[in-house]
Amino acid sequence: MSRFSGKVFVITGSSQGLGRAIASRVLSEGGSVVLNSRSQNKSEGLLESFKQYSERVIYVSADVTKPEQAKMLIERSIERFGRIDALINNAGMSAFGNLEDTEPSVIKEIIDSNLTGSLYMSHYAIPHLKKSKGSIEFISSLAAIHGLGSYSLYSSVKLAYIGAVQSLRKELHDYNVHVGAIYLGFTKNDTVKRTLNAKGELEPVPVRKGLPISSQDESAQVVLNQIYKRKTIVVQSLLGKANFIVNRIFPRIIHVVLLNQYRKMMKS
Ligand SMILES: NC(=O)c1ccc[n+]([C@@H]2O[C@H](COP(=O)([O-])OP(=O)(O)OC[C@H]3O[C@@H](n4cnc5c(N)ncnc54)[C@H](OP(=O)(O)O)[C@@H]3O)[C@@H](O)[C@H]2O)c1
Q1: Host domain of residue 71
Q2: Which of 22, 86, 174, 222 has its CA at a distance of 20 to 30 angstroms from the CA of residue 4?
Q3: Domain count across the chain
Q4: What is the per-residue pLDDT for 212?
Q5: pLDDT tens for each residue of 154-184
Q6: Is residue 96 part of a domain?
Q7: Any domain includes 268
Q8: Given this model, what pLDDT does residue 208 score?
Q9: For residues 55 and 109, what is the distance between their CA atoms, to the nearest angstrom?
Q10: N- to C-terminal Cα separation, the chain
């Protein structure tokens, strides 16, 4: 019997990147998956790539920042599979640029796609997760351990997940619903991945030189092990764990290290 047999996962933002890798793992371990992204035109190729699991996978195009579409995504999942065991709040745009230079529309887009969308999805999924005693998982980032210069929006929303986890653990404790977040380490990006600059233009993601980068499948396994073991907080990678611990005890050291990194980046 496979680990996720009979379990239904709703994974937002799963047409590419980490979300797709998580979907692939869940399917290969016997679970069912509701794939999602905004663009309907991605559905055909995506479903084709998972055709060996066609009985256990559907694709629902929905923008999670719109409450009616988040609701529809949950309703379609229930119509097809009759239950939801895990909601993975994975969809989210990234952005870089100093806050002073950033267009208000970009501020809104980053908050909506990462935070508002995750809260809408959780809101509509909770009644079903109470029935299944399931899980809500938030995909945070090492950028949430300590705010990074030029990533104030991204660090803000990813850190906000931790507050959501802490509150939801109280609200859902007596229903035995697991709530967790992962400080995801650097993970290989799809070549098509884009990030928003301060003006709101989509740009290729900068190459991360000299940093340890996990494969998408490695990161997917860490996320799924966390859900399976019902852990609250997981920090991925040695670098992440070291940062997390030092930041807890000596936050000023991490501030100074990151300030120097920021200054170097601004000069280059
Ligand atoms: N890659 C890393 O190193 C890394 C590190 C730490 C944390 N993370 C986090 O991991 C998650 C996945 O990252 P990734 O690198 O796989 O990102 P990605 O390649 O940019 O994929 C993002 C996915 O989200 C979808 N999406 C975006 N906005 C959406 C919305 N409003 N509603 C529904 N779907 C939406 C995109 O499809 P459409 O554009 O078609 O909607 C796409 O499928 C993100 O939350 C990211 O912040 C990544």
Answers
A1: 8-239
A2: 174
A3: 1
A4: 85
A5: 999 999 999 999 999 999 999 999 999 999 9
A6: yes
A7: no
A8: 76
A9: 35
A10: 54
Residues of the chain with pLDDT under 50: none
What spacing in Å lies between the alpha carbon of 42 and ligand 1's midpoint?
14
CA-based nearest residue to 219, from 1, 23, 7: 23
- Bridge partner list, 203: 195
- Residue 31, amino acid: G
How many separate helices (H) and strands (E) can be counted in the chain? 9, 9
Burial class (CB within 10 angstroms; exposed 0-12, middle 13-18, buried 19+) of 178 = buried
Contact 9, 34 (CB under 8 A): yes
| Domain assignment of residue 249, yes or no | no
pTM here is 0.97
If one residue of 37, 59, 64 were mutated to test the ligand 1 pocket, choosing by the most ligand atoms within 8 A of its CB, it would be: 37
Please state, in angstroms and as integers, the Cα–Cα distance from residue 19 to each residue in 11, 100, 113, 201, 234, following that order.
6, 31, 14, 23, 17
CATH number of the domain within which 53 lies: 3.40.50.720
DSSP output for 37-88: ES-GGGHHHHHHHTGGGGGGEEEEE--TTSHHHHHHHHHHHHHHHS--SEEE
- Closest-CA residue, ligand 1 atom 39, reads 38
Is residue 154 part of the annotated active site? The answer reads: yes
Distance 1 CA to ligand 1 centre (A): 31
Give a yes or no: residue 88 inside a domain: yes
Distance 17 CA to ligand 1 centre (A): 7
